[in-house]
Amino acid sequence: MKRNNIIKGLAAITITGCLASCSSDYLDLAPKSEISNKDVTTSVTAIRLAAYGVFKSQYMQYGAYYGFRWFNGEPWLSAVYGDVTGGDYISYFWQRSSPTIVDWQAMSADNYTSDIIPWSYCYGIISQCNTILSSLEADAEPTGEIAFRIAQAYTMRAHAYSRLLQIFGPRWADAKGGSELTVPLRLKQPDPADTQMPQASMGDVLKTIYNDLDNALELYAKSGVKRTYAWEADASVAKGVYARAALLKDDWATAQKMAHEARQGYGIMSADTYVTCGFAKNTSETMWAVSDDYSGIYYASYGATYACNGAYPTLWGNTGGGAISMDLYRKLDAENDVRASLFFTPDKVSEEVKPLFYTAGYTAAASMNVNVLMQLEDGTITGTPLQKELQKFAEERYAACGRLNGWSFPYAVAGEGTQIADPATGATLTQFGAQFKFWGIDGYSSCAYNMMRASEMLLIEAEAACHNSQEAVAKSCLDELNANRINGWKGTDLTGDALLEEIKVARRIELWGEGFNFFDFKRWNQPIERRVWVAGDATSGNWPSVMVGEGTFQTSKSNGWRWVIPQNESQYNTAVKGNNQTPDPKE
């Protein structure tokens, strides 16, 4: 090994990523905490720290964009681009704070912060990986931990390019066989003077992703090293990224194979684990998580905003922790599916109270808040029957988690006699369909956000097997999952398109709130429909009645659901032609 080459290439590498708002700055690494020559005692030390820096980029407080709804890396990316823009996850927090994201206006604006962030974030990771890989070009046969860390760099570069395709690329059905231009391929650190980096085709980007992952898997096997932390990548994560990338290409054979191999060694969590805070700590399913020590990143933690007992839903009380669309919820077998127990819906209350979910004054039309308090003629503040049922349900869910020390009460439901500024909306916003799936474990609502888990791989395998005419495999995968989710599950007798549709619904339910909804509907080439709440109509949806972006989002919208390439790229890189030239069709 040419250790001096490694030290030269890595001695100044930073252990944090960067985001910038203009020019080519985002292609560089912002030196937050440098590895000095003095600290580099061996080449292994240098490359390990460099690799850790890449992973640190996935979950941290980003100073440049922290003020934009607490951007923190991978969880934020998943929530905003995978769920907030979708149809199954309803977020009053995003409706209030950034309605242009909810209604997709921002998708076509090349100078919006929400357009710049994912581009800068992904290329920041790519830049770090390129630094590691370019510094090791002289080493023909890396072994041991060196090989392991190079494999991690290949894995993370492939992951970042997959993310870019999800957000800025077309769906495969619109990719003209892979020839459609997408994003620039940067496979080495660019020369700042080189302002000509044309967009690569979707086929070429996917080829690069596949090649990177092939290289990674070969090096993981050669290294003989196992990862130390759940936030690191390893061979199982690389195969999971491979399966995800294959979905972008409708490459069902590769998707099925890689998803199956990726989940080996991981068990599907039990129903009891799933519903008793299986998303606050790592479980048997956790393949890749942002943390495994739960120390969190303070108020930038995922749970601070999105946990049912998060700091913002409970302390500030005007954001909510997200709610499930009733149109999806109605697809559950609510009587037997344990996942139904994680949402506050009409079937959780008495028959007398149930109509109040669709009664103006008891459910706030503008926000879908059901934690409504009433002010009586004598000025007393009292809870409505619906609010009291919510209090009871919240206490039941809190007890199911064991009322663990340091775990805040969910949504901090206000009681009778509470003095509040706005009696019409209540003290703490809790939406119709409010989720009790995600929990925080301390005052900052830290939690182990799963970036990849075995159930996702199981569902990829099932979906791909359907397309590969292997229905027995697809049914076996679905049975393995549902046996751990639905009491008395006896299997399915569906076939063909009906079986595929059941697997799609199972995916939407199982992975709800984990950042897949928008991306799945995009690749499925299916429109997203949001149905609003209508007073007195118990068959209506539960999207706020004045919600921005309600209605049907056709597959042609926003040039095939592509975020426009941001201005900070096109101003620097004059070879970029853009990816959003077609105006939105009238709908």
Describe this structure in words.
The chain is built from 21 helices and ten strands. The N terminus and C terminus are likely disordered. It has 587 residues and is mainly α. Strand 6 and strand 7 form a beta hairpin. Helix 1 packs parallel to helix 2 and helix 17 packs parallel to helix 18. The strands form five sheets. Strands 1-5 form a two-stranded antiparallel sheet. The chain has a two-stranded antiparallel ribbon with strand order 2-3. Strands 4-8 form a two-stranded antiparallel ribbon. The chain starts with a helix and ends in a 17-residue tail after the last helix.
Q: What labels would you give this structure?
A:
single chain, 587 residues, mainly alpha, two-stranded antiparallel sheet, 21 helices, 10 strands, 39% helix, disordered N terminus, disordered C terminus
Largest sheet descriptor: 2 strands, antiparallel
Distance between the termini: 61 Å
What do the pLDDT scores average to? 87
Note poorly predicted spans: 1-9, 11-24, 26-41, 416-425, 581-587
Overall 3D shape:
globular
Largest beta sheet: what is the strand line-up?
1-5
- Measured by DSSP, the beta-strand proportion falls in 5-15%
Percent helix range: 25-40%
